[in-house]
Amino acid sequence: MKSKAFSQKILKILPAIVWTIILVGAWEIGATVVANHKRTPENILPHLYQIIAAIFSIKKVANGMTATQIVLTSAQATLLRALLGFALGALLGFVFALIMKMSGVVEKLIFPYLMLIQLIPVLGLAPIVLSITGDINKSRVLIAAILSFYPVATNTLAGFKSVEKEKYDLMYIYAAKKWMLYSKVLIPASIPYFFTGLKIAAPMAVTASILVDTLQGDGGLGCMLSQSLKHAMSIYVFWLIVLFSAFVGVFSGKVMGWLEMLVSPWKRTVNAKKKK
Amino acid sequence: METEFKKVKRRRPQSIFQRLKNDAQWQAISSVALPMLLGIVIIILWQTQALHALFRTDTFTLPLVSKIGSIMFDIRGKLWANTLDTVKVAFIGLAIGSLLGYGVAVLTAMFPKIGSAGLSIIGAFASIPVVAMAPVLNNWTKDVSKEASVRSMVAKILVVVLIAAANMGLNAYRGLSELKPFSEDLMKIYAAPKIVVLLKLRIPNSVPFIFTALKVSVPASIMTAIVSEYFAEYITGVGRQIRENIVLAQYSTAWAYIATACLIGIVSYAILMIFQSILLRKYK
Amino acid sequence: MSEEKREVEIKIRELGVTFRDNSGNDVQALTGVNLEIYKGEFIALLGPSGCGKTTLLRSVADLQQPTTGDIHIQGQTPKEIRLQQKFGFVFQQPVLLDWRKVKKNIELPMEIMGYSKEERSKRADEMLEMVGLKEFANHYPRQLSGGMQQRANIARAFSLDPYVLLMDEPFSALDEFTKEKLYEDLLKAWRATNKTILFVTHNIQEAVFLSDRVCVLSPHPGRLSAVVDIDLPRPRTLEVKDTPHFTELVTKVRNSFEGGSV
Questions:
Q1: Which chains touch B (3 or more CB pairs under 8 A)?
Q2: Any CB–CB contact under 8 A between C82 and chain B?
Q3: Would you say residue A95 has pLDDT above 90?
Q4: B148 and B97 within one domain
Q5: Which of A123, A113, A201, A128 lies closest to B261 in space, CA to CA?
Q6: What is the ipTM of this complex?
């Protein structure tokens, strides 16, 4: 019995394994081809083992730090800002969605502008934000916040609107006060949608924060990325940052998923209707 | 015993506020008029420098609306050329990426076992920051052409392709697989081959989902095109011009490009909405 | 019906409800409904779709404002009764909150009322026992079958000890086997609590089997076209359905629709 369950598990993840092997294979073939034709193959496509070696290399590449040290210290600065901006944007997004739900006039006033924010390019906002705050660190946080704000606000609002009429009727029949309707029905009902917003926003906040780094040389992942590209330091710093930011982007979305499972235990249960 | 009943009323009186709330015409007018009013108020505050006082900034970093407008008019030739470059990248990338994504979705819908993992890998690609992808693709396309403008363009398009493909793939797959109950069974009863199910059932069912994907992809493609311009070798495009002008502290020119970028976003979204309302009419 | 003096619980007089549809025309959903419902009575509101039976129920529950006429429950308006939280309502769909365990769902009305924690828990346990969901108290709604969800829905409606229980086609989405089990359970709960029940349905057999009186409503415009006394002995079991008298009553109800068969 046990071995059967085990083999079923293997079967389930087999396609993922095959795909991973294909991707790694394609990368390695590409890297080999590049290595045979180029003078500086590490600029275009280094072998995976070369990148892994760079992670553990103790060679100092700049400022007396190894490549990994550079990535981690600059990541600390960038991700902290991203996290701060993300939290701020998520909080504001939720509050705005709540206000829009409470007042139809407010919703009509600001909803079209929410759409506009999404259509404005991030770096376009940087100079305004910079001139307002007068501080590059604050503007990094703010831009991450603005980017996170939109998906959280629209998704949470959609969550409030997803509540069926019957649930309002139910609360009405029991003469529930307005705050009870919000605290017992509307807000809990919006939580899954809120997390959908967070899952979209988290990688965006990371992207925004790295992007703003490139505006002004002041440490941070984006800054190191540009310097490495300009060959101011080992090119492997660049590859490490690429892999690292890809990982953080994917991982940040996953973390939001785990967080959701943590706060809504009912999501972990099996749906009776889907069982058959 | 029956005397406790009150006089029978024809219709309960309503306050003006309630009557307005229930009036469909008023609702329609206010949902256009209210945001427009807010927009006008903001522009007036901007033009009269009330906004500057509020944010403690000056007309150098935040030029007046009229100044931005006049600069846009003065450099309209350059503005148009850069706009074309950005739009080309965004839309060629969007078209190729969407087709690619749809193709993967069709493959996954027909052969779920092989495809589903492929789809989740594509999904993972979507969450890789553009800032990480753009420079890599720049390096990869060095040999595409001797012309810096051409190879830069290819690199930028490729980034947009990846973003658009992920978006379309995930959405279209839902449209191709979440069929109406029993419709798939109906096809089975008539022993319809897989290809017929695809053409008659899955593809028509996926049309609304295509628009759901595009609603995200269109702004995302423009955004991605603009961001990948920052990393491109060849200096062109609205996004790159914003950056170049900020570096040179030419804020009013940068603002002219910011306004243009917003316009591109708004206009293309509006066009998408018009297309959707025409094409999706029969789905409602 | 026996001649003994019975207490009138709900008095509906000249009730009319007019809606305005999208093209601005007035549609009469209900007109001229007069009905007196006794305390502890089981009333079925029966009719085809569009006859206004749900509108009538919603008017009693203060979910719908009547255009003409009025409703009194123990001499008070529906709004007054609602503000005292003396209604129990069972919807067609089990309107349970996904994120609350079954027991917590049943406690919801009591939370709104401000019952103490101990009292809520004690009462919810009684209700769970009554509808046979004791073992499922700590399950989430989505872990339950449709029938069990509807049981929880009924338990919640009984939890506040309401004057009147309003049920809007509660069993229409369930299969026949589940339905029959729930009929018996509902009648048992009704007998134990002696509540007045208004039960909306479009199923003639269901109406006859459950109720003391069947109020037949007809559409265009929605109106009360007949009231049929159901004198089947209580307590009723499913075998009643096989008796000739049951069949007679079903035929009688069917023939009372205006314009013959629908």
A1: A, C
A2: no
A3: yes
A4: yes
A5: A123
A6: 0.85
